[in-house]
Amino acid sequence: MADAQELVKDIEALADKLNAARNSIGQQIIGQQGAVDLSLIAMLSGGHALLMGLPGLGKTLLVDTLSTVMGLSSNRVQFTPDLMPADIIGSEVLETADDGSRAFRYIEGPIFAQLLMADEINRASPRTQSALLQAMQERSVTVAGVDHKLPAPFHVLATQNPLEQEGTYPLPEAQLDRFLLQINVDYPDRDTERDILLATTGTATAKSTQVFTGAELIAAQNLVRSMPVGDAVVEHILDLVRACRPDEGEATDLVRETVAWGPGPRAAQALMLTVRARALLQGRLAPSSDDVLAMADPILSHRMALSFAARAEGRVLSDVIADVAAKTSQRKAAA
């Protein structure tokens, strides 16, 4: 009983701290509250996020503000077609000592930061994109057969322009799956855009302040994993993920008709973590089915693919996910 009371106390204290972090981020990021919350959810869950949106919507500013508010060391890599893997993970150089002896020394690349911003990741070649795979999954890089641990916590927040723009390379499925969730950054509404104009074109601009430290973020991530999840929420997660696989017996008719391949077990793991983080961000002690529905699109949209015929018909993956989410909710309510 005492442990449960202590857990409740810790969750409530963290919820207050997260509210302060959101307010601090809001000093620089006007609007885009959904993108801000999803970014915080990704960091609370210990994962990486892929920010999708056209240029000029504040993706880079959001990542930069997060590094300040969360108290993390950060680096930025501008991905270009001529970027090489060594430009990210580092390389060994041959040095000559004063006595004439020579030895190789490893020089760390920009990936050695607690928060790495991979700007326009889909503009780099597939070879360079794949250099992030081991780092994102194992929190280490291997150079000349030697493993080098990355700092903790370690998060990659990558921005990506829509694939229909020229000069982009689609991310491979294996790398997409390494991102915990996908965040769609949309155009602001008229009132928000007016506020942005007034706040950013004057002589003074607001600044965000630090709220967390790296150690406090790690403690928060451990607390998220300690939050209880009810059996009904677990079953809802399983129903949703399995219904998105066209070869499963639980798949909906729309999924069988339109989806080429569906999400794997990592999607269910991501939902288990992110529904807890979302509940915590909203000051609740445990997640609900509403959290599952809210996180369905960010978790599943980059872990599924439409068939060629469905794309030719103009189908949209988000509509398929929404249909599956609605049907699984109806089944759950009827059960």
Automatic annotation (TrEMBL):
Gene Ontology molecular-function annotations: ATP binding; ATP hydrolysis activity
Name this protein carries in UniProt: MoxR-like ATPase
Every ChlI/MoxR AAA lid domain range: 254-318
Membrane-crossing residue ranges in chain numbering: none
Entry keyword DNA repair: no
InterPro entries (UniProt xref): ATPase_AAA-3 (IPR011703), CbbQ/NirQ/NorQ/GpvN (IPR050764), ChlI/MoxR_AAA_lid (IPR041628), P-loop_NTPase (IPR027417)
Domain ATPase AAA-3 span(s) in chain numbering: 48-181
Family under the similarity heading: Belongs to the MoxR family.
Protein origin, superkingdom: Bacteria
Keywords (A to Z) from UniProt: ATP-binding, Nucleotide-binding
Species assigned in the record: Litoreibacter albidus
Entries under Pfam families matching the protein: AAA_3, AAA_lid_2
